[in-house]
């Protein structure tokens, strides 16, 4: 990471200093940093929003990747915020911009009139549960980091069971689960026995059914 990016992260930790407001997740050198800022948006209604910025090693020469999730907003509204932040980032010069993006969101984004009652009736999308079987996890920090990022981007709840069998349990919209599975098979998520990056070609969907509550099995909750 550049000195400029590291300095920005230090400043952000000072600005967003309330408990749980700023979370930094170090990545491998080639993967950059993950910065999570928990904020509120909207002048009339203060709505909680979690913003995840993936700062690539070349940042700020390139804009950050952004994910948005919220228990106060619908999936459509979160996607709308994410797109507006990406558009805003694309218009900014190549310099530290995370604080500027968060401030812009806090000051400029408002809940559209037609969406103000959506919290009372959440999107009428049927929720599903899926259980996936993974072949191996050798580069655990990289692999699980990608799973976390995809689940945030796709608005999924998940957990991983690490043992003799490696299982991933997902809950959320069925199209999002299908996209998660597609990413697993098409993106290089791990390394093979020779240390080369590889895709999860051996992933299997063991169960896919309408939503049932996650049970406490002593598994490791990762996102």
From TrEMBL:
Keywords: Cytoplasm, Nucleus. PROSITE patterns: RWD. It comes from the Eukaryota. The keyword Nucleus applies. Residues 7-112 form the RWD domain. It holds the Pfam family RWD. It is found in: Cytoplasm; Nucleus. The keyword Cytoplasm applies. SMART domains: RWD. InterPro entries: RWD_dom, RWDD3, UBQ-conjugating_enzyme/RWD. GO terms for cellular component: cytoplasm; nucleus. GO terms for biological process: cellular response to stress; positive regulation of hypoxia-inducible factor-1alpha signaling pathway; positive regulation of protein sumoylation; regulation of gene expression. Enhancer of SUMO conjugation. Increases SUMO conjugation to proteins by promoting the: binding of E1 and E2 enzymes, thioester linkage between SUMO and ube2i/ubc9 and transfer of SUMO to specific target proteins which include hif1a, pias, nfkbia, nr3c1 and top1. Has no effect on ubiquitination. This is RWD domain-containing protein 3. It comes from Eleginops maclovinus (Patagonian blennie).
